[in-house]
Write a structure and sequence with these properties.
Blueprint lengths: L21 H48 L2 H38 L2 H37 L20
């Protein structure tokens, strides 16, 4: 009865004015998140490498000081260790430079949306690291407080009862 009253016009969904390609959007978001994660990991590796380089340079300085005090066979052995350590520091320095260069290249490829995602992830990682440091400090403070708490019972005053005779 009403079947001819309304004609249904079928349109291609992609031609509708508010059509969203959800699959493409989801893939784009996943790509943004994975690029941001990649950049964040690169930055963390660069930071770790710089810390390692700083530590190794400190070791080279320590070896140089020991070498000044050494004599005979010790001096020869320490000079060999020093040469090896200096070579290692030089290689590590080159690695840090390459990593920084690679990171700069990757950052230059990012668009604004990806940069914001990277900054967001870095902020989250920094907050997590700070939270861990705060928890560790709290644990250390609690341990220190427990050490300082008096455990010697002799230091506590003793309570004695005195009996009185009441004879009247």
């Amino acid at each position: 009865m009403f079947s001819n009253a309304v004609e249904v016009e079928e349109k291609d969904p992609e031609k509708l004015p508010f059509h969203f390609n959800l699959v493409g959007l989801a893939q784009g978001l996943h790509k943004t998140a994975s690029v941001a994660a990649h950049i964040t990991k690169l930055k963390q590796h660069v930071t770790d490498a710089k810390e390692a380089l700083k530590t190794h340079k400190g070791h080279v300085g320590d070896i140089k000081e020991l070498l000044k005090k050494a004599e005979g066979e010790q001096k020869y052995q320490l000079s060999e260790v020093l040469n090896s350590a200096q070579k290692h520091v030089k290689d590590l320095d080159k690695t840090v430079e390459k990593a920084e260069s690679h990171l700069a290249q990757e950052m230059s490829k990012l668009d604004e949306e990806d940069r914001l995602e990277v900054e967001k992830q870095e902020k989250q990682l920094a907050e997590e690291a700070q939270k861990k440091k705060d928890e560790e400090k709290a644990k250390q403070a609690a341990a220190q407080k427990a050490k300082e708490a008096p455990t010697d019972k002799k230091a506590e005053p003793e309570h004695t009862q005195v009996q009185t005779d009441s004879t009247s």
